[in-house]
Amino acid sequence: MAESKLKRVTENENQDFTVEPPNKKRKERSDLLKKFKCKYFYIDKSLLIKEFLQNGSKIVCITRPSGYGKTTNLIMLRYFFEMNYENIKENEFQNLQNKKYFENLLISKEKEDDQTYLDKYQGKYPVIYLDFSSDFKIGKTFEATIENFKTFISDLYEKYENINIKNLTKNKKKKWEKFQSGIFSISELKESISFLCLSLNKAFNKKIILLIDNYDSPILNTMSF
């Protein structure tokens, strides 16, 4: 009898002190987290922008293991520098839509020549962003891979369909249209990215920022076949 009462008391105590599992629903991600493709939080590395500008190197290669934030930082650089390509008026290139993502970051406090970095550099450059992990797929054959690469290039050119290419020569305009259509030879494929850089430079008379993410993914993906 005593054992039965003790058992019931123990059961009641367990019920009284049972803790409900924490609510797994998370708050909606902020616009900045979505823009920079972060899952839960963003560590402000925006001073990397200043470091790149002061470095002056034409080519910078960042080699770190997966998960070290390379993609996040490249996306940050992209949206800081990338200009507006739509409805461009003469000399009005600044992409003000992206400016809001940097107004509360450390880079917003930096100045150069009595101008903030936001006013001087943000949203004023043609940017080419290539992600060989999500945007390009290795095919099961060489021919299939080439076709995938052509689609990759065609989609890339479509992002710049609104720019004015009147400064290009007649032959170069035709080449631009071929890259947009996805119908071009392997020899032309080899120069597709460099031609895009030269064309954007000609169109805007500005330096081009080329960002390449996961450049080794095509090589690593071939190991799965």
From TrEMBL:
Residues 1-24 are annotated as: Disordered. Residues 1-11 have a biased composition (Basic and acidic residues). InterPro entries: AAA-ATPase-like_dom, P-loop_NTPase. Pfam families: AAA-ATPase_like. Residues 39-224 form the AAA-ATPase-like domain. It comes from the Eukaryota. This is AAA-ATPase-like domain-containing protein. It comes from Neocallimastix californiae.
